[in-house]
Each structure stands twice: as C-alpha cells, then as structure tokens.
Amino acid sequence: MTLGVRIPPTAAARVTSLLRTVQSAPACPCHSNPNHQPHTPHNLSNARRSLATPTGLSGQREYAFEMAASSIRFGPGSTKEVGMDFKNMGANKVCVVTDGNVVKLNAMKQAVDGLNREGVEFTVYERTMVEPKDSSIREAIDFSKSQQPDAFLAVGGGSVIDTAKLMNLYTNFPDNDFLDFVNAPL
C-alpha cells in the first residue's frame, strides 16, 4: 500500500478549476434543474413574463442587466458646480434643504454661490432636525408645498437627505395623506 501525499493546489490551479466549473455550469442558477426544458419557439407563445431567462425566436437566451443610479460627483470644488447641474436639468426653482449647523458651513456657501452664478432661482429650508420626527417632516413638507420647487438639493447628512426626499415626494403627490407613504409608528 502506497501512501499518497496531498499537495495543495497553487493559486493558478484553483483559478483554473473554478473557471472550468463556471464554464460547465448552467448559465443561470434558475436553469440548474436537470429536468428543465429550454424554451423552444413552438412553446414561446405559452411562455409567461415570469420566465427567469427569456429566449428569443433564435433560441438564444437573452440576458439584460441594468443598474440605474444617480450620478455621484465628489472631490474638491464639486459643490460649486450644482448651479450648472440644475441649469442643465432645466430646473426653474430649487429647494435647498439643510440644517441649522450646515447652513453656516463652506459647503452651503459654495452651493448657494453656484446657484447664484448660474442664475438658478432657489429657496433655502434650514430647519431640518437630526433624527426628524413626523412633526418636523410635516413642517418641511408644508414649506416645500408653499414654494412649489421643481428640484431639491440636500446639503448635509442623512437626516437632511431623507427630509429632502420626503419633501419631494409629498410636493409631487400633494393630495396624499402623510401615512400613505410613511409607516405608522409601532
């Protein structure tokens, strides 16, 4: 009887093995079922939209990946460009949302200067609360409804950003009740 010595695979061997496994595996985890029948042209008319991987008339599987995200710009001087961005968007009136501390900082000054430089009309809401309660959110919503902005700029942290999103939501859906979009407290 001969005892074998196990030699651990090199990194290259592990990668090669992984690539072989991936290449031989089904293209989609939904189709790893051995009883899966590919969708053929004769039964496509019976196919529903719920198919995980639609197949076209050519018999090829179709994969579509989409990721929609807001653009994120950062770095020195990027705040100064918000006026140009809103002008390019065609915004007529911007509601700048911030809080009592950030309104005194250079970031707010740069945002206001950028809006002024491009001639963008704006109004400032600076009463955002840290960890806002429903009463402060309602106050912010009432402010934005009275101003009727067509765009919002949040200058600050999470509470400011969340408040601006809610102001936008309720300004665009003014007839909805507050609890239509916000869960009631537990």
Structure description:
The chain is elongated and about 85 Å long. The chain is α/β, with parallel strands linked by helices. It has a 3-stranded parallel β-sheet with strand order 2-1-3, with helices on both faces. The chain has helices spanning 11-24, 82-89, 106-117, 134-147, 158-172, and strands at 93-99, 121-128, 151-154.
SSE inventory with pairings:
Blueprint: H1 11-24, H2 82-89, E1 93-99, H3 106-117, E2 121-128, H4 134-147, E3 151-154, H5 158-172
Parallel strand pairs: 1-2, 1-3
Features:
alpha/beta; 5 helices; 3 strands
TL;DR?
With 186 residues, this protein is of the alpha/beta class. The chain has helices at residues 11-24, 82-89, 106-117, 134-147, 158-172; strands at 93-99, 121-128, 151-154.
Helical element count?
A: 5
Strand content bin: 5-15%
How far apart the termini lie comes to: 70 Å
Largest sheet: 3 strands, parallel
Helices and strands: which structural class? alpha/beta
Helix content: 25-40%
Radius of gyration: 27 Å
- Number of E-type strands: 3
Overall mean pLDDT stands at 81
Run of helices and strands? HHEHEHEH
Strand order of the largest sheet: 2-1-3
Principal-axes shape call: elongated
- Pick out the low-confidence regions: 28-36, 39-45, 47-51
